[in-house]
Amino acid sequence: MRLRAATLILAATVLSAHAQVLAEVSADHIPAGNPLWGIPLKDLSATRERPIFSPSRRPPPVVTPVVHEVVAPKPAEPDRPQLTLVGTVVGDQEAIAILVDPATKNALHLKIGEEHEGWVLQSVRSRDATFQKDRKDAVLTMPKPEGGQALLVATHSELPPAQHKRFIYGH
Questions:
Q1: CA separation, residue 128 to residues 88, 124, 136, 169 (Å)
Q2: Which residues in the chain land under pLDDT 50?
Q3: Which of 7, 127, 138, 161 could form a disulfide with 80 if both were Cys (CB 3.0 to 4.6 A apart)?
Q4: What residues does each domain of the chain span?
């Protein structure tokens, strides 16, 4: 019963709008065929406000699209320091690693306990240095020299007794 009443109300609204349009438009401008073709859509606001096929007779709610922000993943941390070991200084009390940053070509030296980009120097031996970062260990080893021997700057017998066992290795 409600549907029939609603249909009648809608039909009456459409027909009244059609009658108004027909009164405004001269007879020679009425298109042939369906008489509703002569009614502009902007004049049919009642059908938009109270749609026939909606159970509530209300237009569907406007859905705004949800925009998800895409976050770029962080680049993976390197599994070793981005340095090249070019020399070591090992003494009784102290050890130093001499390194080159390949990206900038800058030389740097680190003592045990010092850090570079989060990598902490843990130990230095004659041809390698051990670094640690976030419980990961990495060992940098000096490349083999072309002659097959390390460049020995000072030998054990050439140093005064207080500086024994102090060697500088490099290539």
A1: 8, 6, 16, 10
A2: 150-159, 163-166, 171
A3: 138
A4: 2-49, 84-170
